[in-house]
Design brief:
Elements lengths: L9 H14 L18 E9 L9 H10 L1 E9 L3 H10 L6 E4 L5 H8 L14 H4 L3 H5 L9 E5 L7 E5 H7 L7 H13 L11 E3 L7 H4 L7 E3 L5 E3 L4 H15 L12 H9 L3 E6 L3 H12 L5 E4 L11 E2 L4 E7 L6 H13 L3 H9 L6 E3 L5 E3 L1 H5 L28 H15 L2 E2 L10 H22 L5 H12 L2 H15 L2
Helix pairs in contact: 1-4, 17-18, 17-19
């Protein structure tokens, strides 16, 4: 979920032109009076993603916020599976909103546009908004560009986004325990595929459901979180490490043995969820709280089912590796060419108001005692009305930056206290083995700006083809050797190392 989705350089120029095109004569001020002398509500357009159905902008929670802050929010929610395409369409049609969610501030298209002045530098403003200023330092450090803060981080906890979600009832059925090593993980995947764990007499289950290739598949073997520091202090992309090749050997064998869903190359994250809740797969990499959330839906079809989250098994070196998150997932950029300073401050006021627990709950869950209630242990319990309106972390919460909660990925509405306690302990354990990205927050190199999209595509293609057996490990070695002989790529590594040493 946190890996960069690099947009090709083709859109860099398009973005800058799009912004200029839509900006002419359209800069909207926060000032303005109605006929009766009262200040007019400030109209703010926002574009973001949703993991579920698209909520309405007419929800009571939005109405309340509009009235309290004298704004008029117009929020467009776009499905996660087509979000990248939608953002590209917004660029092409010259219709970027005032605020847009971007998954990676340093992707080539938006970094180029930022350099050209397309978005507001928020560095001098954040300190004036206490809830935003209270975010963890690394949430800002890891999302800086050219040493400045251009986006409001969509703040997230550091850990809990990477766990192994497993059908506990299937483990019991095949007589195995949760895997503690990679060898044991292979045994679990094999048993879930070949030993009829659902006892329906059919060969219709897979050990694991996986959406495309993922850095997690390599980092859990010790390859590093995006980058890995070498003994000499230099940095190496995780996929160029020896551990990455070891991971490829493991996963390509698992795929060849039929232990992973065969349509992995094109599978979407939403389809992984479907495979789990339909009882077609028994393992997936997921947020800690998704074991409970998916499990609730799974039980509607298979009442006896039990999903549980576990730590990632130990790598061959007997150590566990979890990727530590950046402290954010994406940033909200403010369009400088359609927003003046007065309106910028109003936008920051909106995001500050929704960056504490009260504001977060209002937007995420709706009106208290109408759309949700709070149980004795402090858990949020959604009412039928709240569910009907599509409130939730996967939907309405996606347009705000949120508030920092270490255990956010341990919690979910209607979660029993014992499950929450288990999840808290699990996240504490994961924290002990979480690995930071040493290159987080470093500037993008010129070489990557020019050729990164091509390198990334070649890497993903080779990674995918080796995993599914279309290419061999010898082909992988040749690919890595080619990069080692590529002067431009070596310059990229050198510039990254230099930035790291001076960090």
């Amino acid at each position: 979920m946190k890996k960069s989705n690099w947009v090709t350089m083709l859109f860099a120029l398009t973005l800058a032109v799009s912004l200029v095109g839509c900006a002419k004569g359209e800069s909207k001020s926060a000032e303005g009076e109605a006929a009766d002398g009262e200040q007019k509500p400030v109209e703010i357009s926002i574009g973001t993603m949703t993991y579920g159905e698209s909520p309405s902008s007419d929800l009571d929670s939005i109405t309340q916020l509009n009235e309290e802050l004298n704004v008029k929010l117009d929020i467009d929610f776009y499905p996660i599976n087509s979000y990248k395409e939608k953002v590209n369409a917004l660029l092409a049609s010259k219709s970027l909103p005032d605020v847009i969610l971007i998954e990676d501030i340093q992707d080539p298209a938006f970094s180029t546009a930022t350099e050209q002045g397309a978005f507001w530098d928020l560095t001098p403003y954040i300190k004036d908004y206490p809830n935003l200023a209270a975010y963890p330092e690394n949430a800002y450090e890891n999302t800086k560009f050219l040493g400045k803060t251009f986006g409001i981080p969509r703040v997230r906890p550091l850990d809990g986004h990477e766990s192994l979600m497993i059908r506990q009832d299937w483990l019991d059925q095949v007589g195995l325990k949760a895997p503690a090593t990679m060898d044991e993980l292979y045994q679990v995947l094999e048993a879930f595929t070949k030993n009829d764990p659902d006892q329906n007499g059919k060969n219709d289950t897979y050990g694991m459901a996986q959406a495309s290739v993922s850095g997690y598949l390599m980092s859990m073997f010790g390859a590093g979180t995006t980058w890995k520091e070498q003994a000499d202090g230099t940095l190496l992309p995780y996929w160029m490490t020896d551990e990455a090749k070891t991971a490829l050997e493991f996963w390509s064998k698992a795929y060849a043995d039929g232990l992973i869903t065969p349509d992995l190359p094109v599978m979407k994250s939403s389809q992984v969820k479907e495979m789990i809740i339909q009882g077609k797969a028994g393992v997936a990499i997921a947020n800690v709280n998704e074991a409970f959330m998916f499990g609730q839906e799974l039980k509607k079809i298979h009442p006896e089912a039990e999903l549980k989250a576990f730590e990632i098994p130990a790598a061959p070196d007997c150590k566990k590796y979890h990727e530590q998150a950046y402290g954010s997932y994406g940033v909200f950029l403010v369009n400088k060419l359609t927003v003046d300073e007065a309106k910028l401050k109003k936008i920051l006021e909106v995001y500050n108001a929704t960056a504490d627990e009260e504001g977060y709950n209002l937007i995420t869950y709706g009106l208290k005692d109408v759309d949700y209630t709070v149980s004795e242990d402090g858990s949020i319990v959604q009412t039928d009305e709240g569910k009907k309106k599509a409130y939730g972390t996967a939907t309405t919460a996606q347009w705000i930056s949120g508030y920092f909660n270490k255990y956010q990925r341990a919690e979910a509405p209607d979660m029993p206290a014992e499950v929450k306690e288990y999840n808290y302990k699990l996240i504490d354990a994961i924290t002990n083995s979480s690995v930071v990205n040493p290159a987080a927050g470093l500037p993008v190199t010129e070489a990557w700006m020019e050729r990164g999209g091509d390198w990334q595509k070649k890497f993903v293609d080779m990674y995918t083809n080796v995993l599914i057996g279309k290419s061999s490990l010898a082909d992988w070695d040749a690919f890595i050797a080619g990069l080692q002989a590529d002067a431009n790529f070596q310059q990229h590594l050198k510039d990254t190392a230099d930035s790291y040493q001076s960090k």
